[in-house]
Specification:
Blueprint lengths: L7 E5 L2 E5 L8 E6 L2 E6 L9 H15 L6 E6 L15 H20 L4 E5 L2 E3 L1 H7 L3 E4 L4 E3 L10 H11 L1 H10 L2 E3 H7 L4 E2 L5 H13 L3 H13 L5 H14 L5 H11 L10
Parallel strand pairs: 4-5, 5-6, 6-8, 7-9, 8-11
Antiparallel strand pairs: 1-2, 3-4, 9-10
Helix pairs in contact: 1-2, 4-5, 8-9
Length: 277
């Protein structure tokens, strides 16, 4: 991977956190292989999210999102747990607000990135970890995956999950998960739409590579616009959502060389040759 020249700086409250070049991150390992960027959570043993880890996650996604050659970002874990949530034990009441600022910056990066985001869950995803999975555009899980929002048991509620889960699970299932703090199996998560693919652990890497191949075989800019049209229409009345999607299609997509190439390839009965522009 080429050396990343720029440092990434995030300001959380009164504290300045500087994430060095992405190859020097401490808790989020970054590897770029052609059109695929892999971010691996690596903070033994439960990948609990602290300020530095959240800063690295935000900076990594933001920096990779600016790279034209990247078509897909994969978020996965190096340990048995995907992510046990936010680490609160070592934080004073005053510093908790700084931690929450860091949390907000990381999840905003996930929400705002133009790149499709594939999340791979092969273990428990609790609290903030479950929210990481919920923010994935695509999610692959194994039966070892479990999802929970246990914040209610600590006298708080998960603000991000409270807003996002109703879109994914429906309001009643979201309320059940948030108000009870109970754990959801991978099978149930698949039934409700939190997980796209549920595969045995022995087939996990094969499935990940299969999904990567399917996504990265498409035009990068078209992937970005398709994601923009889908997510930009969420929450809108149907007619407004259709107008929003058509606006992206007519005003942005039509100008792409790849869109013209796709039509030519169809007429000429051949595979398209994307220029990614």
């Amino acid at each position: 991977m080429a050396q990343e020249r720029r440092g990434a700086v995030e300001v959380f409250g009164s504290q300045l956190l500087v994430a060095q070049r992405i190859e020097e991150f401490q808790f989020v390992k970054v590897r770029v292989d052609g059109a695929v960027a892999r971010l691996t959570l690596d903070r033994p043993e439960h990948n609990l999210l602290n300020e530095q880890m959240l800063a690295e996650l935000a900076a990594g996604i933001n920096l990779l999102g600016e790279r034209n050659q990247i078509k897909l970002i994969v978020l996965e874990s190096a340990g048995k747990a995907f992510c046990g949530g936010i680490e609160l034990g070592e934080y004073s009441q005053r510093r908790v607000f700084q931690l929450l600022d860091a949390f907000h910056a990381a999840f905003t990066a996930m929400l705002d990135t133009s790149k499709p985001l594939l999340v791979v869950v092969n273990g428990p995803a609790f609290g903030g970890g479950a929210e990481l999975a919920a923010l994935g555009d695509l999610v692959i899980a194994t039966p070892k995956a479990r999802f929970a929002q246990p914040e209610i048991k600590l006298g708080v509620f998960p603000p991000l999950a409270a807003a996002i889960l109703p879109y994914i699970l429906g309001p009643k299932q979201a309320i059940e998960l948030v108000l009870t703090g109970e754990t959801m199996s991978a099978e149930r998560a698949r039934e409700l739409g939190l997980v796209n693919w549920l595969v045995p652990e022995t087939e996990l890497q094969k499935k990940v590579e299969e999904v990567i191949a399917k996504v990265t075989s498409q035009s990068g800019p078209v992937l970005t616009m398709a994601k923009k049209a889908i997510l930009g229409s969420l929450g809108m009345p149907l007619r407004d959502g259709v107008r929003n999607s058509m606006k992206v299609f007519l005003n942005e997509l039509a100008d792409l060389e790849d869109s013209q190439e796709g039509v030519r390839a169809l007429v000429e009965k051949r595979a398209p040759k994307w220029k990614n522009r």
